[in-house]
Amino acid sequence: MAATLELKYFNTFWLKKLKNVVGNTPSAPTVPYNNVPRAYTGVPAEDWYIEESRIRGGYNNTTVDFGVKAYIVEDNAINQNRFNTLIYSGIFNSRTGVNNTNQFSVGEDITRSADPANGSIQKLYAEDTNLIIFQENKVSRALIDKDAIYSAEGNALTTSSNLVIGQIIAYAGEYGISEDPFSFAVYGYRKYFTDRKRNCVLRLSRDGITEISSYGMHDFFRDKLSNTSVSRIVGAWDIHSKNYILSIQDNSISQQIGENGPATPGPGNDIAVTLNGSIGDIQPGDQIFKWTLAGQIVGEFYGTVVSITNYGSPGVPAIVVCNIVTQIPAFGVIVFQRKPYITASFDESVLGWTSFLGFKPRFMVSNGSNFFSFSTYALLSPSGANVSGIIFQHYTTPYGLFYNFSSKSSVTLVLNSNPSVVKNFKTLNYEGSPNWTLSSLEASSGDTVFPVNPFLQVTSLSGLESDLFSNSFKRKENKYFANLLNNSSVTQGEVSRSSISVVNGTFGGQSTGVKGFYSTVKLETPGNQNSQRELFSVSSNVVESSY
């Protein structure tokens, strides 16, 4: 039935418009409006003002009361930090457009706490009707709109419940995500993350939690994750290659200060930079910055170290091959800054870590069938453009290019047939693209070989004759092979070899092969390639040592 409510308070307002301007000279209002305060200028003006119907109303009153408002005052307001507690709000109805996510009912039990002994909640992930909770030292799942009861045999039976957040059930194993939520990645029903406190990389799937770092990389990740210099761990799922990508990044380290000799040329690839004195422990990938007398980096970025030609010695200059983006002035004081990192990929199809990758991402993300990453440094590209935080699409041409800087591709492998037999490795053979080079080969005895240049297609008779005596790969039946020319010094008691001189790609004498139980081989391709370089298999012709 309808109800009648007596209105005890009312008020009315009269909105008036006053236009009393002639030309550009405003005139004051006449009675009864001559008491209206106005700030006149020399331009035409239109004024509005409000007149209240009640005589007690004052012109200078700033507000008008709209009546009594119901509210609650918390006399002892306390800010609580509940690091292990979940809370839920109202819902957003996508059908009606009603958004109640800002409402938290005080009349209902809307919180659920995880075990505080397992540390703070670092990550939440919703999957089906479960909410997966990643704490520092534990991984659990909270049942949503359901609960679990247990039979006499201890089996869990799921039942419906009026609780939004039901029972929290922990996964087996003393694992957590530590304080690295950015290491989390998901594909399908597989979740990947790291536990720095236990020095392992983990996968959560239907079969529970598995240490995937134990697939051939247990010692590596144990040493890497236990390093206190690790400052950031980033993970993502690479939808293009179907791999889990993990980047473990250390704090920046400033290395030896060097003084450049003559001024370097302008931007370009692989420019030799000559330094006065030794450069110490500098590695490819280190970056060169300007250095002030106060001993700090001022932000001017010169380039990235590509290779080391000469580390230098007293009276002998050091020579560093760099990708220069900004000219280094003559005798400019520079610093080599290293930001160590490893970026590795895990392949589920082989259950192993298949590759180290040559980029250091800030973030990574898959979108559709493409994989993207964001650069870490505030750098300049070879074109001079600032590439700080740029998004980079992987698996595009030119290959071997990350954040506008080229990087060489390499494959390191071990030849170890008949491990208990000392062998003489005579040749190196591979199947794949023609542009691979042998950058290094070292046997277990310490013997090394000269680098082998890539195969070069020749069409003339003179070119063929020169190629026969060059230290490079030869092609036969669509396979590539090269003799291994020993580059080791003669040891005591060893029969002296003929001297080898490598001049203009030719060599004289006979001294092939290296001895050892096994040999470590590194094959490379140049960076910034316009096409893919494939490598199917690598082998060596060996003979058993005659000892």
Helical segment count: 2
Low-confidence stretches: 40-45, 149-154, 377-388, 496-510
Strand order of the largest sheet: 17-22-19-20-21-18
Structural class label: mainly beta
What would the average pLDDT be, to the nearest integer? Answer: 77
Bin the helical content. under 10%
Determine the oligomeric state from the structure.
single chain
Q: Given the C-alpha coordinates, what overall shape results? A: elongated
Give the number of DSSP strands: 39
In percent, how much strand structure appears in the residues?
35-45%
Question: What is Rg?
Answer: 37 Å
Major β-sheet, in short?
6 strands, antiparallel
Distance between the termini: 112 Å
Quick description:
With 547 residues, the protein is an all-beta fold. The chain has 2 helices and 39 strands. Among the domains are: 9-74, no CATH class; 253-338; 410-544, no CATH class.
What topology emerges from the helices and strands here?
Elements: E1 13-18, E2 21-22, E3 25-26, E4 47-52, E5 85-87, E6 111-113, E7 121-127, E8 130-135, E9 139-150, E10 156-170, E11 185-187, E12 190-195, E13 200-205, E14 208-211, H1 218-225, E15 230-238, E16 243-250, E17 253-259, E18 268-275, E19 287-291, E20 297-310, E21 318-324, E22 333-338, E23 341-347, E24 352-357, E25 361-367, E26 370-375, E27 391-393, E28 401-402, E29 405-406, E30 409-415, E31 423-425, E32 427-432, E33 437-443, H2 461-468, E34 474-476, E35 479-483, E36 514-516, E37 519-525, E38 535-539, E39 542-544
Antiparallel strand pairs: 1-4, 2-3, 5-6, 7-8, 8-9, 9-10, 11-12, 12-13, 13-14, 15-16, 16-23, 17-22, 18-21, 19-20, 19-22, 20-21, 23-24, 25-26, 26-27, 28-29, 30-37, 31-36, 31-39, 32-35, 32-38, 33-37, 34-35
